[in-house]
User: Which sequence fits this backbone?
């Protein structure tokens, strides 16, 4: 028997606070060498504008009754889905296994979970890299990922106001209306990049393949969470933004293999691979320093990691079992 957890089930048990705690634990375990995370497999279907990813990971437990978490996420990214099919851009499923026996223990819808763990990773980064007094957020993009980016920042910093920029006015206006109510934060929409860059924290969650602002316009002391571009030929940030920033990756090897924001800047000679200072798990574990000055521009670059999914799935499974949520099915 395995526990089937629908998107609605996951939404009932997974808060941003729980997601941040789970993701931070997974990232620290990865930094300590207590996680196994192969490079994800990717099938790119250019003619269909689609991406299919297989993302397995194992996170070691504390021993005894805690064997850790073992899972595989299968996720697809189709940017045309919202406009063409009224479907989410990102769809996914997580298969959770018992590390002791290999038995399938849960099948978990990963749509909401993916958005939450992506936001949570930025929440972890913001916790360690943004200025303590940071209270304003500029968000590029107004989709599902942008929502959890803002929610995560609000969880770890005393946010009082936010600005959102998105070229699609109805989506932008809906974001303002719904997220203002959900978070109790004053939010306004804008068409000007400069309005977002005037904020203490900048979140990038777009489907753009080219930079969305000029790096020369970044203010000293800004913290950036960049999560939208996750392919070698795509970038949300120009080389100048990368060059001016202290760059922290969700996982340095993965970002140097997949993040166009970084690989294109390296190809253009603006930086070298050493410009990526650390992986965020190293900072969260205390083995590497975070922000070093109030004037420093810090940049968290994320391509998304299987350990984030697996850690979050393990937390969701435990919460659902405790609450009696989900449906047992034969496998």
Assistant:
């Amino acid at each position: 028997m395995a526990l089937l957890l629908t998107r609605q089930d996951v939404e009932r048990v997974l808060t941003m606070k729980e997601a941040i705690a789970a993701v931070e634990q997974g990232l620290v375990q990865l930094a300590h060498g207590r996680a196994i995370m192969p490079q994800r497999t990717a099938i790119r279907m250019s003619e269909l504008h689609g991406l299919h990813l297989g993302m397995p990971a194992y996170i070691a437990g504390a021993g005894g009754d805690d064997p850790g978490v073992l899972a595989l996420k299968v996720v697809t990214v189709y940017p045309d889905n919202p406009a063409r099919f009224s479907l989410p851009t990102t769809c996914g499923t997580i298969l959770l296994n018992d590390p002791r026996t290999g038995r399938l223990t849960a099948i978990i819808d990963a749509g909401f979970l993916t958005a939450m763990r992506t936001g949570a990773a930025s929440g972890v980064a913001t916790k360690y890299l943004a200025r303590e007094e940071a209270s304003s957020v500029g968000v590029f993009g107004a989709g599902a990922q942008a929502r959890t980016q803002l929610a995560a920042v609000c969880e770890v910093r005393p946010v009082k106001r936010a600005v959102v920029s998105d070229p699609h006015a109805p989506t932008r206006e809906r974001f303002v209306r719904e997220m203002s109510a959900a978070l109790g934060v004053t939010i306004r929409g804008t068409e000007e990049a400069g309005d977002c860059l005037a904020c203490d924290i900048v979140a990038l969650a777009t489907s753009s393949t080219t930079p969305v602002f000029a790096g020369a316009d970044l203010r000293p002391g800004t913290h950036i969470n960049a999560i939208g571009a996750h392919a070698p030929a795509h970038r949300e940030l120009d080389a100048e933004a990368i060059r001016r920033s202290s760059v922290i990756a969700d996982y340095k090897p993965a970002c140097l293999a997949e993040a166009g924001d970084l690989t294109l800047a390296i190809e253009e000679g603006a930086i070298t691979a050493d410009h990526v200072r650390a992986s965020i798990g190293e900072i969260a574990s205390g083995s590497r320093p975070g922000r070093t000055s109030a004037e420093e521009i810090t940049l968290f670059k994320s391509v998304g990691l299987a350990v984030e999914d697996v850690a979050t799935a393990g937390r969701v499974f435990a919460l659902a079992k405790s609450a009696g949520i989900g449906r047992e099915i034969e496998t």
Notes: Residues 22 and 315 are 7 Å apart (CA to CA). DSSP finds twelve helices and 16 strands in the chain. The first strand starts at residue 2 and ends at 5.
